[in-house]
Amino acid sequence: MGLFGTMFIGYSGLYSDTLATKVTADNITNLNTVGFKGSRTEFANMVVRYSEVFGRERGFGANIKHIRPLFTQGGIFTTDLSTDLAIVGKGYFILSDSKGNIYYTRDGQFFINEVDEHYFALQNSLKMYLLGADLKATSPDLNSLKPNLIPKVMQAKATAVLSSQLILDSRRPTNTESLLAKYDATKTQPLEDGRYDWVFDLYVYDSLGELVPIKLYFDRGDSPNTYEMLLTLADPAKDGRGEGNYRGAFLYGTLTFGGAGEVVSATFSEVNVDGTLNPLDLTQLGRPRFNLNINGNVQQVTLDLGFSVDPDGSVSRDIGAVKMLASPFAQVGFTQDGYPTGVFERIEVIDEEGLIRAWYTNQKDIEVSRLFLADFSGYEESLERLGNGLFRARAGVEVYLFIPGSAERGRILSGALEGSNVDLAMEMINLIMLQRSFQSNSRVITTADAMLEDFLRQLRF
Fold first, then answer.
1. CA–CA–CA angle 358, 74, 414 (5° rounding)
2. Are 151 and 119 contacting, i.e. CB atoms less than 8 angstroms apart?
3. Domain coordinates of the chain in residue numbers?
4. What is the pLDDT of residues 354-401, one digit of tens each?
5. Residue 348 bridge partners (DSSP)
6. I want to staple 231 with a disulfide (CB 3.0 to 4.6 A). Which of 251, 315, 325, 417 is the partner?
């Protein structure tokens, strides 16, 4: 091979060390890059066959056979920003640009950006959309994924169910005058103080999202085990049914209690503005459902007092059912399912299974969509690096989509990011070794050069 061959061997070492140093430098430079996956340099020896007869081979230097990306897990650090997402385990976030091209990344730095006049969406700093699927989807494909759109406004919801847990005083005296007969909407106060035993102040929301106060009156019946009740609007003028002595009154009922204070039977009727009653069939729904007319807008409301009437006429009671006890009147609990219009306020957290929940100024939340992750088990080295933490699947690479946290694959942490998987200590060791290798290969070249110069000098003499 000779001295010239020796210099070429030294050169191959210098060239390989230079490439390996670039890889190490790239790893160290991206030490703080979120979701960065480092690489390692794989060296290989080169040989030359110098005898075809005896099949002998001789080393001819080194080369780089492969620069292998490492897809090991990076460290997790918290940020307290709910839209910062980290993947623990397998998986990649799925992104799309404005042209619909699909990309993958482990960089979970997302923010809420305006899409149009109706929606926000989760995007990264490159304005790429983070993709998800409908809440009911279990095994979508890439074509069915879409941006996670967040409505700017949550529309108001009219109250449909009004629930209250009540205690009625059993010590009140009975009376023979009907509670409904005492009501007169033509007066400033339709039910005057002292003409009923108790009133509970409740409220509902109408279809426009306006809070509407209502009153639930109770008065002792003509027997010790009964109570009458009357549900009315606090302001009868909001009744859109028209004029009448019973304007604002909508539901009348009688509750009968057993010896232990539990409700044993009930009857309910809708009240017309002229005072006529429309009895309700409780065996269908089990609870009274009536039409509430607020400024001409009609909404069906179900009153839930903790019990229901079974088809056979018997009564089933919940733990919080209305009771009659030797105790002052009390409202133990109250709920209603309506709410006003709300403006988007925040995403509080994205759970480990990728469920995105948006919160609004009306203190309500909605489930927007669910994130799906992509898995390339066995094919990750076939991903094409594009920079900015992005990867693209090469032709023929199969993509598996899965719900985070399922099948022992990756899960999502909200308010956290995955750091680089580069081991700085190991990279510094590699750098020192490459430096020494480069120096040694340089010495090989200079030594061969000096020997060649001595040889040529001898020839001149």
1. 10
2. yes
3. 2-72+421-460, 77-152+372-418, 161-336
4. 999 999 999 999 999 999 999 987 778 888 899 999 999 888 788 889
5. none
6. 251
Q: Residues of 80-106 as b/e, b for ≥16 C-beta within 10 angstroms? A: eebbbbbbbebbbbbbbeeeeebbbbb
- Alpha helices per DSSP H over 30-124: none
What the block records as the tokens of 73 is 């897990």
For the cut 90, the answer to whether the pLDDT of residue 1 exceeds it is no
CB neighbours of residue 190 within 10 Å: 23
Tokens representing residue 403 in the block: 């719900």
Cα 82 off chain centre by: 10
* Enclosing H/E stretch for 100: none
What kind of fold does domain 161-336 have according to CATH?
A: Tick-borne Encephalitis virus Glycoprotein; domain 1 (2.60.98)
Name beta bridge partners: 317: 307
Whole-number Cα distances in Å, 71 to 38, 40, 50, 340, 378: 8, 11, 41, 48, 11
CB 72 within 8 A of CB 307: no
Angle, in degrees to the nearest 10, between helices 424-460 and 2-29: 160
Calpha distance 447→441 (Å, rounded): 10
